Structure formats: C-alpha cells, structure tokens
Amino acid sequence: MISRFTGFLAAIAMVATLAVSPAHAQDQKPADAASAIADAAPAPAAAPSKPAENPYSLANIAAHGNVVDQVVLVILGIMSMGSWYILVVRLWDTSKLSSEAKDVRATFFKKASLADGVRGLKEESAFRYIASTAIDASEHHEGALTENIDHSSWVTMNVDRAVSDVNTKISAGLGFLATVGSTAPFIGLFGTVWGILNALTAIGLAGQASIDKVAGPVGAALIMTAIGLVVAVPAVLGYNWLVNRNKTVMSQVRAFAGDLHGVLMGNRAVAKR
C-alpha cells in the first residue's frame, strides 16, 4: 500500500515538472533574445573631446603673457600698421603725380599763355604750385634786397625751392620705413631673449628639464623674432621701392620746372625787346 502511494506521488511530481518546463523555456527564450540584441547593438559613439588650448600660441601670449611680451607686441603692431599706411599713401601720391606729369607735358606748354596753362591745372596739383611760384617770382623781382640777384637766378631759386617742397611731401614717411626696417628685428629679438630667460628660469625653479618643458616656452619666445621679421621685411622692400619711384617721378617734375624756367626767361627776353 505504501509503495503504491509512493509511486503515485512520484507520478504527480513528474507530471508537474513536465508542465512547468515548457513555460519556463518560453520565458527564458525572449530574455535570451533581448540579451543577444543588446549585445549586438553598437555602443554609442563617444563625444569628441575638445582640443586642449595651446598655452604657447600667439593669442595666448597676447592675452595672458607678461607685460614685456605685450609691450613688444604692441610696438611691433604699431610699426606694422604705420608702415602699411605710409606705403599705401605714398604709392597713391607718386601714382597721381606721375599721371599728372604725363598730362602736363602733353597740354601745359600748348596753351596760349602761362596763365591759361596754370588755370588748366588742378588746385591741389604739385605742378600748379611750381608754376604759380615760378610766375610770381618772375613778376615780382623787385626790392632792395633782390636787386643784387639777377632775374634768372631769382626764378631758379624759387623754382628749386618749390620742387624741393614737392619732393619733401612725397618723401614723407620714408624715414619711418627705414627705422622700422632696421629696428623691428631687434625688437622682436628682445622679446625672444626675454621669453627664453623667463622659460629657463621657470624650468630651473621647477627642476624639470624634459623636452615638453623646454620646447613649448622656447618656441613661444621665438614667435617674437618671427613677428619682428614679418614687420621689417615689408618696410625695407617698401622703402627701396618708394625711393626708386620718387626718383622717377621727381625727374619728371624737374624736367617740367626746367622747361617752365626756359619759357619764363624767353618771355622776359621778348618783353625787353
């Protein structure tokens, strides 16, 4: 009897096990599938890291450098802006004067009189200034002080003075260009020496002489020399270029002044007859 009852319980337990196993298998399968999908899904891309700020860049030196570095940068900046301003203005002046010289040579001496020729020139023209000065000197050669100077010499003196005034005007600023060209590299070099001195002092105090501790500060200091050269080279080239242009233009101005002097002397000789 007991053995039969035991067998009956074993049969019930077997049936219960078979009933629970399929349901457990079905529950496990979706869980395993979800886990597989999660493993197969790509991981989210990491956000791009922001590049580290270079502590030795020119912008950083200008914003956070010491007083000497900032003063050197300001001086070189003023030199550069002044050089380019003078280059542009003097180039415009010489170009305008050269264009006027061609027109004057073609039209001035074909007028009926010197007065008509002067009226045909622009008010601000250098050639009108020279012509007016020469005519005034020719017509007002009188007085106790000028009687001892002959008429030709008197007119020549006034014409030469007017030509010299024109030359001074178109040559204004060339001295600044020459100064910038000769001193800007040394100002940049001073900034470099000062930067290297500070860098080596900081390295000595820190007690570290690795390449990353030396290359950065020294490289930043060398920027000053590079800036000095960038400022100096255009100034030197511009100075030489403008000097040659001035020589060419002033030769045309002097030719006009010489012809004008000859016309004035010829008119006076005719008037004396």
From TrEMBL:
The lineage of its organism: Bacteria, Pseudomonadati, Pseudomonadota, Betaproteobacteria, Burkholderiales. Belongs to the exbB/tolQ family. InterPro entries: ExbB/TolQ_transport, MotA_ExbB_proton_chnl. It is found in: Cell inner membrane; Membrane. It comes from the Bacteria. Keywords: Cell inner membrane, Cell membrane, Membrane, Protein transport, Signal, Transmembrane, Transmembrane helix, Transport. The keyword Phosphoprotein does not apply. The chain crosses the membrane at residues 71-92, 174-197, 217-242. It is a multi-pass membrane protein. Its main location: membrane. Pfam families: MotA_ExbB (PF01618). The keyword S-adenosyl-L-methionine does not apply. This is Biopolymer transport protein ExbB. Involved in the TonB-dependent energy-dependent transport of various receptor-bound substrates. Protects ExbD from proteolytic degradation and functionally stabilizes TonB. The accessory proteins ExbB and ExbD seem to form a complex with TonB. Residues 151-253 form the MotA/TolQ/ExbB proton channel domain. Residues 1-25 form the signal peptide.
